[in-house]
From TrEMBL:
Transmembrane segments: none
Protein name, per record: DUF1996 domain-containing protein
Claim: Zinc is one of the keywords in the record: no
Residues in DUF1996 domain copies: 32-279
Organism name: Lophiotrema nucula
Amino acid sequence: MRSLSAAIALIAAPVQAGLRFPCSTLTVQRLDPVVEPGHNPSAHVHHIVGGNAFNASMTGDVAERATCTTCQMAEDFSNYWTATLYFKHPTNGSYHRVPVVPVQPLLGGSNGASGGLTVYYTQFDLSKDNLKQQPIKSFQPGFRMTVGSPTTTSTPHVGLRYQCLTGTSRGAEMPDFPTKPCSGGIFTTQHFPSCWDGVNLDSPDHQSHMYNTIRSDGFTNAPACPSTHPVRVPQVTFETTWDTSKFNSLWPSGAPNPFVWSFEGSNGPGTHADYMFGWKGDALQKAMDKSECFYDGCGSIKKQAMADANRCTVKDMVGEQVEGWLPALPGMA
Ligand SMILES: *[C@@H]1O[C@H](CO)[C@@H](O)[C@H](O)[C@H]1NC(C)=O
Ligand SMILES: *[C@@H]1O[C@H](CO)[C@@H](O)[C@H](O)[C@H]1NC(C)=O
């Protein structure tokens, strides 16, 4: 709700900050070059957007190898992914993948994206960039990170949230799945940490090279980075709309939430997300250095039509069924 009211406030307020753009779905398959590099298949199914250098294993400068991207920003060959949502039939136990639909942001529409997710890179919060106080350093080639964990059994930290969409309302931000059907689908948000140790492109747990200063929900401003992680990098956020509506009639009144992540989980909300940096040259640095620009208008940043972005694909490298009614989640049998 807070991000919603922040966005409404911006219609009136001229001061703006950050990049926001759609990326269409690139592929849905069981690969994870950050957590399980070289494994084909990886443990669970992912919904992946971004550049076509996506592979079971990814090293070095991704932007050098990619030739297209599903993101609106034509020089962004990064990959962004999360687990995929499945509906687990309450009586017969079969699974069906929940389709992804473009996020309909309050400003700007989805620009013809196909599925996918919306990506934000903010410098401070949605209304100011604070660049004079704290400059932003772009991620470097080879950089990767994750946020959250599939094995979480407790409440995830702020910044990892679920919302129940009804009509034009996104509803309150919640730490776990909605407990009642949502007519407009389920909306998930993942805010990544924005303080970097300045040295490591990755770490064994893919998280300790980063530090999370987020203390409240929404696009709230970022406090100073600690001395252990002194470098402020862009704050990356994903928003995804899972179109759960077609399964609502199969959710008996009073029954528990029937939606599960592709790893099904261990009674915890388990929301997590992965990021693989892949902007070309200094394109992201230039966009982040531009003061008080907003959404897709940061400097001379190069954009492409989503119709072109939608033509970018990668091949199915796993070769298993992830669609239709399935007796078990892929990899979980
Ligand atoms: C993916 O990795 C395989 C094995 O290293 C390689 O043969 C293939 O060309 C790679 N594909 C892309 C799109 O980079
Ligand atoms: C479970 O129910 C769905 C929807 O009614 C159906 O399509 C699917 O085949 C069923 N699965 C089994 C194992 O009966």
